Amino acid sequence: MKFGVVVFPGSNCDRDVVWVTQGLLGQPTRMIWHQDTDISDIDVIVIPGGFSYGDYLRCGAIARFSPVMQATVEHANQGKFVIGICNGFQVLTELGLLPGALVRNRDLHFICDRVPLTVVNNKTPWTTAYSPNEVINLPIAHGEGCYYADKDTLAEIEDNNQVIFRYGSTASPNESENCNGSLNNIAGICNRKGNVIGMMPHPERASDPTLGQTDGMKLFKGLL
């Protein structure tokens, strides 16, 4: 399975992902400059974390217009795999591949921490290595990670089992474990097909045993 990691001006987690997919998992991986348009050789597109275009206007708002993103939409529409991590999740919502938006954290502070997550949906291609309602721990680092959607959209993604991760140690929303104010404690969602996912926590930062935490590796191994 060949991975492609998109690189925007301001990306800072691209090489972290490459270390996991190529360095630890031994999968062919190439870094894709944001102006490239030919991704036909790629099975999995990864839109990494960072500050694409310096997060000017708002997170992901400029990156959505990069040439590679239209190719990414076509890639997703073909049923191929796409994951957006942190800033990548913001880009996917701006692009319309995922519903909702990521807005300023509830307390208007940048959060850098490790938090518990509950795996709400383990039936997507990405989450098959996790057990139902498994509690994992992943790092977060964001200032605009509060998931928001209008009432109808929120009800729709809940009804369609598109929520894949919640902040906290229970499958039901628990406000006391809501680190950033996200509606329904949502930390990650997928599209209806399940081939496109977005998540604010960083699985690539919890995949190398050298770092002492590997809960994120299951995401990549499950897909493989």
What's the helix and strand layout?
Layout: E1 3-7, H1 14-24, E2 29-33, E3 44-47, H2 67-77, E4 81-85, H3 87-95, E5 101-103, E6 111-119, E7 135-142, E8 146-148, H4 151-159, E9 163-167, E10 186-190, E11 196-199, H5 217-223
Parallel strand pairs: 1-2, 1-3, 3-4, 4-11
Antiparallel strand pairs: 5-8, 6-7, 6-9, 9-10, 10-11
List keywords for this structure.
single chain; 224 residues; alpha/beta; Rossmann fold; nine-stranded mixed sheet; two-stranded antiparallel sheet; 5 helices; 11 strands; 21% helix
Protein architecture, described:
The chain is of the alpha/beta class. It has a single domain, classed as Rossmann fold, CATH 3.40.50. Helices cover 21% and strands 25% of the residues. The strands form two sheets. Strands 2-1-3-4-11-10-9-6-7 form a nine-stranded mixed sheet, sandwiched between helices. It has a two-stranded antiparallel ribbon with strand order 5-8. β10 (186-190) and β11 form a beta hairpin. The N and C termini lie close together (7 Å).
Shape: globular
N-C termini distance: 7 Å
The domain count comes to: 1
The residue fraction in helices comes out at 10-25%
Known CATH architecture: 3-Layer(aba) Sandwich
What name does CATH use for the topology? Rossmann fold
The major β-sheet equals:
9 strands, mixed
* Unreliably modeled segments: none
Q: What is the quaternary state of this protein?
A: single chain
Count every beta strand, where a strand is a DSSP E run of 2 or more residues: 11
Compressed to H and E, one letter per element, the order equals EHEEHEHEEEEHEEEH
Radius of gyration: 16 Å
CATH superfamily: Class I glutamine amidotransferase (GATase) domain
Mean pLDDT: 97
The CATH class is identified as: Alpha Beta
**How many helical stretches?**
5
> Which strand order does the major sheet show?
2-1-3-4-11-10-9-6-7
- The amount of beta strand, in percent, is 25-35%
